[in-house]
Specification:
The structure holds three protein chains of three kinds.
Chain A (H helix, E strand, L loop, with lengths): L15 H14 L3 H20 L4 E5 L4 E5 L2
Antiparallel strand pairs in A: 1-2
Helix pairs in contact in A: 1-2
Chain B lengths: L7 H11 L6 E2 L17 H17 L4 H8 L3 H9 L7 H11 L3 H7 L8 H13 L8 H24 L1
Helix pairs in contact in B: 2-7, 2-8, 7-8
Chain C lengths: L3 E8 L5 E7 L4 H24 L12 H5 L7 E8 L2 E14 L8 E10 L13 E2 L1 H15 L6 E5 L4 H5 L3 E6 L5 E6 L1 H9 L3
Classes of the chains: A alpha+beta, B mainly alpha, C alpha+beta.
């Protein structure tokens, strides 16, 4: 019942620090490391597209009424 | 974890309960978006008329913003946006609740707030006249009071006219 | 090319199952084609709603070509349920995990951006609805997708007011959400998803 019929495998070379971040995110979100990487890829694709079309990315703190531009 | 498929028997039972009901769910906001696009943006004077109408009506009924927010169960900061920012388009539910509390006709309020299709010529004209006569001060002077009464009269007349058409 | 898997619907008014198929990943074109197919019946219903001064679902006015454009991104997935040659229901989900508001500490939730049944299945719009169980079948498909993504079957969505009674049966109601036009937000936990499929409330 797999939705994706083909999957390909690649080896990721990460530093110790990067691997730690991946492990922490995986534990925090209760997702496998692969699932975390897939999340990152999806987010990156979306964000990259909008930035490429000239838009800007902001973080907003409604309580403090602060907005911060993400320089990417 | 392998997903258990619902049995046919259970599906039939649940489907019978669902029969003919609406199941629509709607988000479709990409992660960044906060407010959905309004159906059609009303023109400047109409939006200004909406802000002013809410503000004046509230004051005519001698209510503070906190009173209105509490009794209409709307967010105070949204009410602030409505009264002070004429380009702000409020949520449909908020408009309904304000209309209920302030005793204003809902269909016309939806148009003025930018949530429904464009106004009739009479409504637009009335909104423009009202906007032109209004100023943002704390207490309504007799002139503003008159302007408010006249505008509300037009809104109610419009509502009755549309009801008679049916 | 979308993959298909077996499903079923119930013929309305009869205790009869009809074979259906879940189309796993609709393309932009297939999504638009579905909306075009639904349009004539929707327009009919819209006329009646306008006459009766009833509110109509705002998303009927949407520019669907823009929404369909979201399918260019891996973050969005559209599924449909097809029966007797026509799409009977649609679902669009965001596969970028949202945080659960039910299960601490913020476990991954599949957010259902959009779910809808074809207009001819709704008793508010037609005298004799054709099929029922579209909502049940699509919720089932959403749970399966959530599982595939590693989200444990968890799903979240904002319900239109007319649909709240349906979602209340199977999901946790979390209140009106000011950041989503005041619509009611519902969530199904992993446990609720399991119970939904197995038959206990």
């Amino acid at each position: 019942m797999a939705i994706e019929t083909t999957k390909r495998t690649m080896t990721l070379n990460l530093t110790d620090a990067e691997m730690r971040v991946l492990e922490v995110l995986s534990a925090q979100k209760d997702l496998s490391k692969t699932a975390v990487i897939r999340q990152a890829l999806r987010l990156y694709q979306l964000v990259d597209h909008r930035l490429a079309s000239g838009e800007k990315l902001f973080f907003e703190d409604e309580a403090k009424r602060q907005k911060e531009l993400m320089m990417i | 974890m392998k997903v258990v498929r619902m049995s046919d028997e259970l599906f039939l039972k649940r489907a019978a309960e669902e029969e003919g009901c609406m199941i629509s769910a709607v988000g479709l906001q990409p992660l960044h978006a906060k407010k959905a696009e309004p159906v059609q943006q009303a023109g400047e004077p109409i939006r200004f008329a909406f802000s002013t109408l809410i503000s004046y009506r509230r004051r005519a009924l001698r209510m503070t913003m906190e009173d209105v927010a509490r009794r209409a169960k709307v967010e105070l900061d949204e009410l602030l946006e409505i009264e002070e920012n004429s380009s702000y388009v409020p949520e449909v539910r908020t408009v309904h609740r304000l209309a209920d509390l302030l005793k204003l006709p809902i269909p016309q309020l939806l148009v003025l707030s930018g949530n429904a299709k464009t106004a009739t010529a009479e409504l637009t004209e009335a909104a423009v006249r009202f906007a032109a006569r209004s100023r943002a001060v704390e207490k309504l002077n007799p002139e503003q009071s008159d302007a408010l009464k006249e505008f509300v009269k037009v809104l109610v007349e419009q509502k009755d006219k549309e009801a008679k058409k049916k | 090319m979308s993959s298909r898997r077996k499903s079923r619907l119930k013929r309305a008014g009869k205790n009869e199952l009809v074979a259906a198929e879940i189309v796993d990943a609709l393309s932009k074109e297939e999504l638009l084609a579905t909306h075009l197919d639904w349009e004539p019946e929707r327009l009919e219903a819209l006329k009646e709603l306008l006459d009766a001064k009833e509110p109509w679902p705002e998303h009927w006015h949407w520019d669907w070509s823009k929404k369909a454009g979201l399918l260019d991104f891996m973050a969005y997935r559209c599924m449909g349920i097809e029966c007797e040659g026509r799409m009977q229901g649609l679902l669009m989900a965001s596969t970028i995990a949202r945080s659960s508001r039910v299960e601490p500490p913020g476990k991954a939730v599949l957010y259902v951006d959009y779910i809808e049944s074809a207009p001819w299945n709704l008793k508010d719009l037609v005298d004799e609805p054709k099929f029922s169980g579209v909502g049940i079948a699509l919720l089932e498909a959403a749970i399966e997708l959530s599982e595939e993504e590693g989200f444990g079957g968890r799903i979240g969505l904002h319900s239109l007011p007319q649909s709240e009674a349906f979602y209340r049966k199977y999901m946790t109601a979390l209140g009106l959400d000011a950041s989503h036009q005041g619509l009611h937000y519902f969530e199904m936990s992993a446990e609720q998803a399991r119970l939904f499929l197995e038959g206990r409330k």
